[in-house]
Amino acid sequence: MALRKKRAKVIAKAGGKAAAKKVAKSAAKLKGASSRATARKSPPRPSSKAWGEAGRALDGVRILDFTHVQSGPTCTQLLAYMGADVIKVERPGIGDITRGQLRDVKGADSLYFTMLNGSKRSITIDSKHPKGKEILDRLVKQCDVLVENFAPGALDRMGLTFDHIHKLNPRMIVASVKGFGPGPYEDCKVYENVAQCAGGSASTTGFREGPPLVTGAQIGDSGTGLHLALGIVAALFQRQRTGRGQKVLCAMQDGVLNLARVKLRDQQRLKAGPLTEYSQYGEGIPFGAATPRAGNDSGGGQPGWILKCKGWENDPDAYVYFITQAPVWQAICDLIGKPEWKTDADYATPNARLPRLKQIFATIEEWTMTMTKFEVMDTCNKHDIPVGPILSMKELAEEQSLRATGTVVEVDHPTRGRYLTVGNPIKLSDSPADVRRSPLLGEHTDEVLREVLRYSQKEVADIKASGALSAAEKKAEAA
Ligand code: COA
After folding, report:
1. pLDDT digits (tens, 9 = 90+) for 435-449
2. Which of 299, 421, 427, 468 could link 131 by a cystine bridge, Cβ 3.0 to 4.6 Å?
3. Which of 131, 142, 119, 124 is nearest to 66 (CA)?
4. Ligand 1 centroid to 148 CA: how many Å?
5. pTM of the entire structure?
């Protein structure tokens, strides 16, 4: 309001009183409309704190994290990086099964676990123990979001049905990853590669003459976790208007299909004829009924392929992805020593090149093999020719620019020592990522019971004696 008045004053100085009146009138009209739209509460004034010092994006959001393995933990780790208080509930004595999977350091939590559960707190609760159920109900009342990726029906079997949760806390958002959405497969348990296959990725990955392939990127697990995180943030935003939580469901099949949508695009294009940008077209091989596997063909309209670079005989990653993008074709011809291709009718246009892509890439490869992948990248980027060096995990782990941006972070751990993890790949200019080591099993049990749930010291002692928190104590009590 002060700003609008100021603006009217400035205009009055520059353009006279009539103009100023007009601006003030339209501003008042606008104000009326916007205050009707945001009838609940006017937005806070912009913070006067320096960028990055006004807290984190999800400060104040508390998450009851019932996730395990990879898909759910990916989601809650991202939310934790963005400032949410993530309380991971684990089974006493066992915890998330990944703590013990693919162990590289005897007795220490595996990297599988530590790299997916950073910045969280851990509490152990037996969700089937009567006292455990009581604690969980209390946690439901204190949290904003419950995230889970149990097998279908497991949460209900614990008594945590949506109705029960909503009775306790109508603002609670209940977010789930499942393998499949409602339908014939909804009761199935699903892991990463099952989702890659069921979501259309595997049938379109690999070489035409070979079997379907899964990809190294965990698009089923981590990809679905990412989708879920977006759903949760959207539900939190909607809750500000409606005052109530809702269910958020991400099926892994749906998540993979969303990421493979260009292949469903191509499925529909098949009706109009062959997919001319696929190298299979140039090789004269007819298309079948479904989108085929396309090797290293580019997914867009610009042909591309993976080419050998210097050292490929001994280094399995001495390769570069090369794209023959039409706007830079002339520069490519000059660089690879084929200036005559710029005017040759067989090579000068994208359509003329389509049937010759194999031979064209073989010629470009003769040139890329004279340089390392990094030299190819340097040379090509000077001419705006997009290329991608095939970077190994070793190279990425050692890449200093990724350390500098916090995409690769080194953290310390009490039982395994220092390890690398992937920080927040989403950079918020006013919410620096909060990347901390993963918690030990039950490390924060006391802290959560006392500080979050406000149990007294005596009550905590009684809870412990009940066996609801620890498999060992449960056994001791029974003995
Ligand atoms: N206290 C007591 N019991 C607990 C518990 C706790 N704190 N936490 C979990 N459990 C129990 C569950 O209640 C369940 O028991 P129930 O089957 O008797 O009801 C049991 O542990 C096992 O849970 P479940 O999810 O079935 O684990 P699983 O190892 O058999 O299956 C998956 C693992 C991943 C296949 C399955 O959880 C799944 O399909 N999830 C959805 C899709 C998904 O996220 N897949 C990708 C994983 S990366």
Report:
1. 999 999 999 999 999
2. 468
3. 124
4. 9
5. 0.90
